[in-house]
Amino acid sequence: MSFTPQTPARVRNDPLGPQTVNIAQQNIVEIDGVALAEHLNDGQHNAMEIPWLLGHVEDGATPAGSLFNTTYGGGTLARPATGAYAINVAAGVISTSALSQLQLSAMANVSDPAVESKPHTITFEAISATSVKVRIRELSSALGAGNAWADANRDFDFGLHALAQDTDSLLTTPLLKVRRDTLTDQATDWNALVVNQGITRKAALLEHTTAGLHSVNRIAKAIGWFRPSAGPAFSITASERVASVTRVSSGVVEVLLSDDLAATTNMACFCEPQPASLDELVITNGRAFNAGAGVTKFRFYTYIYSGGAWARGDRPFFAAMFGAP
Amino acid sequence: MSYSKLFTVCQDFPLGLQSANQAFDNNQALYDLYDAKHSFGIEGRNTGGFQNPFRALGRHDDPLIARTTARFLVDTSTATPTARAVVSGPMLNLSTPVYLGTGKWRFFVYTPQLFGAIAQSEATSAVDRKATCLIEFNPAVGPAVSVATWGVSGGAWAGTNFDFSITLWANAS
After folding, report:
1. To 5 degrees, how large is the angle CA A148–CA A153–CA A159?
2. pLDDT per position as a tens digit, A163-204
3. pTM of the model
4. Residue A22: per-residue pLDDT
5. Are residues B119 and A272, on separate chains, in Cβ contact within 8 Å?
6. Cβ-contact A201, A229 below 8 angstroms
7. Which residue of B has its CA nearest to A214?
């Protein structure tokens, strides 16, 4: 695909008239228009459906976060009570308007090694324009023996969605040429084109590769739908950038990402099981597994509530997996 | 096309064809970059001349990016509770939720290819809460996402009304 109208390459003795230059100027403005629809003028993605802040939190004496988008001023973490975490966002990341706070939606997942043996729940609460509270609970009963829950300090992943921000174009307004103008009689015209191209490219490469692929931790590296199949085994229903899926054991599934993804130790995921019906409660937690150099794997653990107790079980599930670019 | 940084000029500086052609190539390189995962508003026009709203100018066209996210505030003050979406990221995809019973909602989805959905529960004082979702297909109206919101009552999980978020993934085409 290309612009309409296009600017064909010129060869010796071809005329280079004002319309050609004007079209080139208009084309870069068109690209800028495309970019600013869902990006800030510095290149950051600017859309409600893309998390403004996404992180993996390691619990410890002091909870530590990674994958924070530092271009939004990062954030700080606190753990005021067992199983309770406060994600404090730098001022200005989320608008202080009440409506903007109401629009704050989220995704959250408990990604601690403890999910390998027990189901966990995680809830969020928008406190203010700069603070979100997260609560984590773990099944304290043994599997198959009850439904008691307790607060628990755990590693977790979170993504916060907020209202898109206003942004203005940074492009220099070009002076369009007319008949008898020379190309550089006013230094702003050719220079405006050159400068505008530079501005546009710099912004584009902030969160994209030169090929146009997204290169930012707030956009998933892989997604997939996975379902139980005969064996027992697991199969990929549909996916993007997933290499394979393996059923490790009942309720435990391993997803290997495509080989061309850069290995990373900072990984997060969000997952949703597909219950057999709306009357069935199923919990799936996911976590990076053996994350390290050369490994991009996630494991997902599914628990089914039945008869007042929890047990491992296989259910289809959807997962979105994130990592540092 | 490959991109090559050009130079600014002062008055009377001669510019040759190579420079002009490189400028055109630079534009095309930037076009190709954004065209990879964004819409230029050209694709998706059907014979009726209507623009596919999911392919509007500048919209992301990458299955790795969620298509919609919305927060729903549940109002239980009326005989039949309602869940109202706070205005949020593209709401073209979801119908007004239908109340199915305590802690149960159904949304009909208008996005061309529903890929996945994630529900997230909110909590204030009561923290034993879990929101789940089920993707269904109704031959009469198309794909739907049903959400169940669960809370613990009397030691057991049961349908409970509370606020929740939902995030959908879908392909534009």
Report:
1. 105
2. 788 889 999 877 777 777 776 656 567 888 899 999 999 999
3. 0.90
4. 84
5. yes
6. no
7. B37
